[in-house]
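Sorry to interrupt, but I need a hand with the structure work. It will help me judge whether the discrete encoding reads sensibly. Write everything out right here, beneath this request:
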Amino acid sequence: MAGGGTFHPGLEGVVALETDISFLDLNAKEIIVRGYDLVALANAKSYTEVAYFILFGHLPSPEELAAFRQELRSEASIPTEVLRLLAYLPRTAHPMDVLRTGISSLGPFDPDLDASSEEAGRRVAIRILAKVPILVANLGRVLRGDPPVVSEAGDFTQSFLATITGTSPSPDAVCAFDRLLILYSEHELPSSTFAARVISSTLADAYGALTGAVASLKGPLHGGANEAVMAMLERVTDPDVFERWLMDALARKERIMGFGHQVYRDRIDPRALLMKETLASFQTDTARCLLALCERGEAVMAREKRLYPNLDYYAAPVLRVLGVPTPLATPIIFAARTVGLLAHVLEQHANNRLFRPRVRYVGPRSLKV
């Protein structure tokens, strides 16, 4: 075999690195994040607490949490020059393209951009974590050339949701959004995290690594699936009609977004179960309608294809109930995942090994000039 070694298409099944950040334990049906079950964390802690935990490796004391929140507030601003640059992009640009450009352009304004110490890396991480939600919540305004708006209401999650929707969210809405952010915060080594680690392995800066992660997450086979699920659920409001639509789509051998996962092949994503419970907790006609649609779709896909929901399938309707515009679905996922990506960048820099796999060459040989 040209190139040597064993060929693993898509690197499936290959263990590429050691980490103490997270692990998908399929036997225990848990997503382990630094020793805790992620779903249990989502039921017991706030996103800010979990973000601190993922970055620093221990749950914060009240004093540490207060200081962390203050740091995030103090760094929650975007340089005027970055806003001017983004305003030159076409107004038809996809929000993820705007976000990718925004994160990349933030880098040169960071005084610690090329610093190599662990402490400088953590300062960079806090700056990025604080700024990404501001960018995400204001992508539409930025494209129009309007100044960003930042809600001062409450904690990180409440402020983020209030800025997105332009309303004062209820405690139940904040709780649901908090759960959603936590469930997306870290998930071992999906494409976007792997992209960030590969870039980081060259000792590139965190802004470059996250720029690559945005590009990866935009794809409909990754984070873009959430947006695709939202679009799918907009097509119908009746479960019977939805079932017929699904059956027709399956007959055409179309891919149904929100189902199946490279890791959770024969079971439902454990995060999806909590999002399903969250959707069911909303006592509104919209929520009940979406739940009925999703449950019918879940039954059809299990019966016809033995495929089960991933997180996107039930997170999408929760975002709809919360009043989040469909184009912001994937950027919000990136905002939630930012802390996990940053933890991986810091870990890669701390114990680095350059990624350099080989290929299986299948082209011609011995051609003569």
About this structure: The beta strands are 22-25, 30-33, 36-37.
